[in-house]
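Fold sample X.
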Amino acid sequence: MTRKFCLLLFFVFLAISNVSGQIPSWVRDAVQEAPEDVLLGIGSAKLNNSQNSMNFAEFNAKMEIARQIIYTVPIPDRVRNEYGDEITLALEFVAQELTFEFTDELKIVRRSTESDGTSWCLVSLNKAYFKKYSDMAAKIIQAW
């Protein structure tokens, strides 16, 4: 995908998932200034307390990177046939599994809590690790 298309998808995701209605300026700046060799994940959450909100914002950011990876993995026909309309849920499971595999390669770039209590987290993953995780996702999908 082209960088412009990825940015468009990113802002659509933020518009849909944004709990406070305002995207912090540092998020927009980070996306526009991101190096070409990294994947970015942005997560936000507003829960019952600030620690839970930050933890969930971080998880959402990791999931965003995992989704960018799994949706490039070819899905075998037998898996598509078996899961049918539920393939999206199955891929979300794979994305969640990948978030547990991210190790030192994933970097937390910034965390922030807005005045309304919404927590935001920006994470990055160098694209050099993209193949490692896409291969991992492919193995999980093939095992089905």
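Fold sample Y, listed below.
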Amino acid sequence: MKIPRPIAQIRAITPWSRLGGRGGCIAAIVVEAEAVAHFVVSDMTRKTYSPGLAALARAPADKLKHFIIQADEAQAEAAGFSPRETRKKARAG
């Protein structure tokens, strides 16, 4: 049996309390880009989603609890999220 190559590797886990929060942990995860190209990040506050994982990198640490990583756009839309309009799209429209 061939063991599949992992798409993610956890590098470090930091207790949230060391970062000023209460309870929980934050994990630094290294992921191969092509393995997660289809993922989307959904914002539970705005009920929108963005393609890729870049939204997680831009978000402040205290707001990460409002994000969900979903497998693809279809899964996000089935859960009631709509595509997030970028500034370029909003100005053009």
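Sample Y note: The chain has a mean pLDDT of 74.
Also: Helices lie at 54-58, 73-78, 87-92.
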